[in-house]
Write a structure and sequence with these properties.
This protein is α+β, with helices and mostly antiparallel strands and 179 residues long. The chain has a single domain (30-177), classed as Ribbon (Umud Fragment, subunit A), CATH 2.10.109. It has helices at residues 2-28, 106-111, 123-127, 150-153, and strands at 30-34, 49-53, 63-67, 73-80, 86-89, 92-95, 98-100, 121-122, 136-140, 156-157, 161-170, 176-177. The strands form 2 sheets. Strands 1, 2, 3, 4, 9, 10, 11 and 12 form an 8-stranded antiparallel β-sheet that branches. Strands 7-6-5-8 form a 4-stranded antiparallel β-sheet. A hairpin with a 5-residue loop joins strand 11 and strand 12 (176-177). The longest helix is centred in the N-terminal third of the chain and has 27 residues, at 2-28. The protein is elongated, with a radius of gyration of 21 Å.
Amino acid sequence: MEKKKSELWDWIKAILIAVVLAALIRGFIFSPIVVDGMSMMPTLHNGDRMIVNKFGTPKRFDIVIFHAPEGKDYIKRVIGLPGDKLEYKNDTLYINGKTYKEPYLNQYKKRLAGGPLTEDFTLKDIIGRDTVPKGEIFVMGDNRRFSKDSRYIGAVPLTKVVGETRLIYWPFDHFGLAK
């Protein structure tokens, strides 16, 4: 009888430890997310399931999840980092006066009809400042014509960033790293 109680207690401890570890990992390290909408097409599709890495600081062109002003979580690409001066001119990105290629937009640009994919703007036009403020990032969706991003909601405080994501795990035909 004593042996059964001991074995049962061992199982309960093991299950409790597993549940606590799973909660800690999901809460502080990795968590799943479902892409909702088409603002990141063609890179990400509505319904794609991804893993969010909650460690680290976003880098230029990373895909990040952040808490948007409407109380929803958005998924967008980091275009500008703190201190960057941004401009779009003739469908070309300029950061601190230097031209940057955006290969993730090539598929849409090839099929484009009726104007540029990304309308011309300067950071001053959008947020009233010449540079991305300290402690904030400027984000945009890859589906530039249909994305509610920093052009509409302003720069995103780093404190609102949940994490960076790259790994698509579902559906299987999309499995892999988002670029």
